[in-house]
Amino acid sequence: MTLNKVLVIGNVGNDPEMRYTPSGSPVTSFRVATNRRYTTSEGEQREETEWFSVSAWNRLAEQCNQYVTKGMKVYVEGRLRSKPWIGNDGQPRAGNEIMANEVRFLDSRASAEGDGGEPGAGTDGGRAGTDGGRAGTDGGDAGTDGGRAGTDGGDAGTGGGDAEGLPW
Question: 100-118 pLDDT, tens per residue?
Answer without folding.
Answer: 999 999 985 544 343 433 3
